[in-house]
Write a structure and sequence with these properties.
This protein is of the alpha/beta class. The model has no long low-confidence stretch (mean pLDDT 88). The termini are far apart. It has helices at 5-21, 26-34, 39-44, 59-64, 111-121, 130-138, 154-160, 175-188, 220-227, 229-243; strands at 48-50, 67-73, 79-86, 95-98, 108-109, 124-128, 144-147, 166-169, 192-194, 201-203, 205-208, 212-213, 216-217. Helices cover 41% and strands 20% of the residues. The strands form four sheets. It has a five-stranded mixed sheet with strand order 5-7-6-8-11, sandwiched between helices. It folds into two domains: 5-102, Alpha-Beta Complex (DNA primase DNAg catalytic core, N-terminal domain); 108-243, Dna Topoisomerase Vi A Subunit, Chain: A, domain 2.
Amino acid sequence: MFYSYDQSKKYSEMFQKALVYAPDSEVARNYLEQRRISKETIEKFSIGWCPVNKKTETGLIKRFRGRVIFPVKNEYGNVIAFSGRAVDKENKPKWTHEYGFLSKSFFLYGLNISYPEIVKKGYVILVEGQIDLIQMYQHGFLNAVALMGCSLTEQHISKLFRFTRKFVLLLDGDPEGIAASKKIEESLNGYIFPDIKTGKDEKVSTIKIILKNKGIEYDPDKYLCEYGEKRLCKKIEKELLRKGDINGG
């Protein structure tokens, strides 16, 4: 179903108010606290809650009830999609989405917040999923965006090329994340652009970082909560220096 910007904004504001005032919202606030998501971050990302109101049987309310809501915004700050995370294990699937008439191949979570820093730093950090992106933000990695899944599409690439052609891949350290990182790296390395000023071809630069330690696989959320931002920053800086063609900022 398609929702206009105004309709999506109204839904987003309703979900945000429900997180504070709905009678059953404590479970959502407890979930966000357990995931170490601060009140400031909740406001920054417009995170909300869809109450369990079984009298409502239509639209987004029916689709998302009993879920923490993560609005997806475009680079201009307009709400263009919604993702809902179940807090009850009996509520399946764990994540559900509403993309309107588009698909997740068009969306990059957090781009509205991160694109100025991507331009400033000269590169983008790609992670997988909303929680990873939020933890990156909370730990000071402001030039990160999240894929809505493991795939980097032509639409994603076209959007990100407006801001940078240099990528740090920081997906999950499990076999699926490693395979996705390899696939993304291969697809990005196939792009070559002519530099108008120099007349030389400019290649896309990629760095792939696998989050593992002592045989344990990590996603960025778990890694940051366990080791903190300094350790991850050193890991990224080491790869930036080794690559030699990305400005660490």
